[in-house]
Amino acid sequence: MDLKQHLLAFRDKLRGEETVDQSSTMAEQLVDSANPAQPIMPEHSAVTKAENIQRNGAIAEGGEIVEPMSPRKRVKPLNEENEPPTPSKRQKGVAPIKAEYLLHPSGSQSGEARRGAEHDDDAAEAADDRYSKGDSRDNRQNRKGNKKDKNKKQKGQNTSRTFGSSHDKLQLCNSRASSNEFSPKDCPFGDRCRLAHDLRKYLQDGRREDLATFGGQCPVYEARGFCNLGWKCRFHSSHSEERESEDGRKELVLLEDEARKAEFMKTCGPEGEAGVVNVVSKEEKINLSKRKTQTPRSDAYIKWTNTNLDVDRDRFDNRPKKDNSSIIKEEDGESSTKQESGELGPKEEEDATMQQEDADNRAQYVEAPFRPSEKRRIYYGPETPVLAPLTTQGNLPFRRLCVELGAQVTWSEMAMGLPLLQGERGEWALMKAHESEIQAPKFLQKNTVVQGYDNAKDLKFGAQVAANKPWLATKVVEVLTALCPNLRAIDLNCGCPINLVCEQGSGSALLDNPSKLENTLRGMNYVSNETPITVKIRMGTKDNDPKAHKLIKRLVLGGYEAVESGRGTAGVAAITLHGRSKQQRYTRSADWSYIAECSALINRLKREKSEQSDTVKETDPRDLAPNGHVYFVGNGDCYSHVDYYSHLENAKVDSVMVARGALIKPWIFEEIEAGQYLDKSASERLSYVEKFAKYGLQTWGSDEMGIGTTRRFLLEWLSFAYRYVPVGLLEHLPPNIQDRPPAFKGRDDLETLLASGNYKDWIKISEMFLGPAHPNFKFEPKHKSNSYEIEAEG
Ligand SMILES: Cc1cc2nc3c(=O)[nH]c(=O)nc-3n(C[C@H](O)[C@H](O)[C@H](O)COP(=O)(O)O)c2cc1C
Ligand SMILES: [Zn+2]
Ligand SMILES: [Zn+2]
Prior knowledge:
The protein is an alpha/beta fold. It has a domain of 200 residues. It is 39% helix and 7% strand. The protein binds flavin mononucleotide (FMN) and zinc ion (2 copies).
């Protein structure tokens, strides 16, 4: 069934409830539905449904989708006079919407702009449910060790988020769930089992009816040729029937598509998943939780670094540091002409003596127990736009959609080191990737030599982790590389601003501890075998005190202690810089001129390094990043192909990472590829929602619980997607991610609905594909201000 048919079916299903006055405007509807932030309890689904009909009123009798009526006819302007639209001047911070789409055409645009949005993204980034309530994907409730900080709030963040639970009224025992009626498995709990065993009773009274969306066809069955959710599946009638047996009895049986199942089983992993990689078995997780998993490389590495600590202390803590590079001087505006002239002054003589001492001292170091392995080469270029790591939002179904739309590099949501090491199911679930993510990224530089790069061996998906200590980071990398064979790279998150993460010394806190950061990355590089190590940083922790350039220097050349002791560089293959400080809110733009400075610095350092390698202590090539080459990726506010290419051009970054831009319009990757704006119609945008819903059901299951999880993550995405202002409505281009639109209406009702900041509308959108929300389903937006926006818009 295509989208249009689907909408029609939806309309038909709700027919008879079409009681709402069609003459009321979208603006009025939004006012009507304005409500302070209450978790929505869709018991009022009759109203919801009726509103939905009204909103989808663009579907005419007889099944045709009619051209959108001129919104002018439908929407009464709220001011008295019908003033002719006048082109507006571009105002900073305000999306320049054409007058004919404004709900208050003569009002001050800035006054009308959605207020309260300032803290949105800080709140969204920081509102990681793992640090407050459970995450329904993986039962991460009551995570150990977080009690103390339970009540801590990050500004604007909706901390006490609950998502209700979506369960069947009667819970069917697993011994019945995937068996035919007359051949149930034995229930291991016998009479003590409290779950339902009477299949017919369960189907009759114990669960909600099947969904009619997706043509009533089960998306899981469609992909696998069988549905592992069996009778619990909300599409079960598409893969079951009542069969009369020879003795005349009627049996409920589950169907399978033999050919498709055989195809699926070929690629099916130990945990029964296909099309998904990096699935770690239960046994491995149990071994981790029981500390049975060995990490010999990390142990040897940590032992080695500890042994050398005393030598380090003797050498570096007890004497003044000397500068081993001219670069700092250049940065500080000092001239390095003397050094260049080759004259020896008293300082140089002193240096020569110290060099002799250094050589003696170096001899005191214990040799490394092993060298880092050579790394698989990666590549970043103009043709590889990067989807950022995104906690909660960057889940597998969303990444799958982005890859389909052209994302060439994807990252997992940030996984925390300790729970990974302890075998926590939820954390390991973050490592799963869709098969499309393990395809090679695009590579167009066939004529230029990118030394050692084998595109066929490269893949799109990498894992991002947070860790606060070298021992933890190395162990995590060692188990990750052993258990997840499909990783492009492992990235250390040094940009995370979440208080709880930073208080433990991870995330942004590492920016203030460069030596620990370097040691951590070096350790990761030592133990990762062929998997490259990368790092994501911010400008610094504090505003007006950027530190990234110093860090970059340390990472490319190696810190003072490391070079002096012959340990070499940390060996990172790429650095991504988000052009904001930890302290900086999203309200201020990312600093691309600073990113450009850092990019220039990297290039200088690379040159410097090749010169240095002639004179200074030779670094073992295995300690260097692949080929000694460190890729540099810029990040912040990229919202169109125009932004993308201008950053490549002006900041000279290798590629650009896109975060919120992709959440707001995932087809940004398509725009980048096409090099032009794509004015997606509302129904095209809705088809992406449909895809997400389908991918969600295939990932989390098509039973009541899976649907609840899919709905929750769809809503999380819609909490960004509604911000999209169609380019066709804009007076001036390029669109700016920082701009907020004044209240506006779309070119049709669906476009207006998709722009609604009211999460009740998001639930309605979800219902088009996932059916009416479960009575116990709740959703509270991460962005607290969404409730405010509704009032402001009203
Ligand atoms: C909802 C949300 C979740 C995020 N989660 C992560 C994360 O897990 N790891 C990370 O390194 N950055 C995370 N970030 C930061 C983004 O990766 C990116 O650096 C930042 O949003 C700036 O890029 P943008 O201006 O394109 O949004 C998150 C940001 C948002 C808005
Ligand atoms: Zn039972
Ligand atoms: Zn099914």
